[in-house]
C-alpha cells in the first residue's frame, strides 16, 4: 500500500502538493515527521528497537515513536496514530502543541514529550513489522547505546536537548 505525505513551504503552509512517502522532497519544501517521547517518573526514556525487516536502520534502537505525517493528517493526529500502531498506547494529542519543532533540511520534525508516565512494558502491544523490543533507559545508558552504534544516528547534543526539555518545558523566564 502506497503512503502519501503533504508538502509544506518554509512557513509551514501546505503547498497542495502530495508525494509518496519514500519520494525525494523537492528543494525548498518540507514534509512533516513526528516523534513521541515517553519519560517515566524516574526520568528514563522509553526507547524501541526497530524490527529487523525495516528498510531504514533495522535492528537499531530508536526514540519511543517516530513516523511520517500522512497526507491530510495533523502532527497531533499522526502522533496519536503512530503511538497506538507501534506500541498499543492510546494518547490524545489533539490539544497538544509540539514541545519542539526542528527543521532538518527537507523535513520538519515535531516532537511531543509525555513526562512522568509509568508504563508496564509487558502490556505494550508491539507492531511486529515495526518494533521488536522496548525498554526504559537513562540518559547515560542511551549515550552508551549511541556510542556502541546500536541507536539510530541522532546527534548526542540533540538527545541531551530532548532530556533537558523533559525537565524544563518552560525555557523562557518572564521579566
From TrEMBL:
Q: Is Hydrolase tagged as a keyword?
A: yes
Q: Which intervals hold domain Nudix hydrolase?
A: 29-159
| Domain of life the protein comes from | Bacteria
Please give one Gene Ontology molecular function term for this protein. hydrolase activity
Alphabetically list the UniProt keywords. Answer: Hydrolase
| Gene3D superfamilies per UniProt | Nucleoside Triphosphate Pyrophosphohydrolase
Tell me one Pfam family matched here.
NUDIX
Q: What is this protein called?
A: Hydrolase, NUDIX family
Amino acid at each position: 500500500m502506497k503512503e502519501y505525505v503533504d508538502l509544506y513551504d518554509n512557513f509551514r503552509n501546505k503547498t497542495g502538493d502530495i508525494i509518496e512517502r519514500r519520494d525525494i522532497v523537492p528543494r525548498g519544501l518540507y514534509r512533516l515527521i513526528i516523534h513521541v517521547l515517553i519519560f517515566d517518573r524516574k526520568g528514563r526514556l522509553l526507547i524501541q528497537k526497530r524490527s529487523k525487516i525495516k528498510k531504514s536502520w533495522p535492528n537499531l534502537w530508536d526514540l519511543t515513536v517516530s513516523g511520517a505525517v500522512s497526507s491530510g493528517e495533523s502532527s497531533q493526529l499522526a502522533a496519536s496514530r503512530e503511538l497506538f500502531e507501534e506500541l498499543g498506547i492510546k494518547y490524545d494529542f489533539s490539544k497538544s502543541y509540539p514541545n519542539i519543532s526542528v527543521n532538518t533540511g527537507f523535513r520538519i520534525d515535531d516532537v511531543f514529550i509525555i513526562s512522568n508516565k509509568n508504563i508496564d512494558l509487558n502490556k505494550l502491544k508491539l507492531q511486529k513489522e515495526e518494533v521488536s523490543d522496548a525498554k526504559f533507559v537513562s540518559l547515560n545508558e542511551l549515550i552508551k547505546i549511541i556510542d556502541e552504534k546500536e541507536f539510530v544516528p541522532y546527534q548526542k547534543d540533540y538527545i541531551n536537548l530532548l532530556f533537558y526539555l523533559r525537565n524544563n518545558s518552560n525555557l523562557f523566564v518572564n521579566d
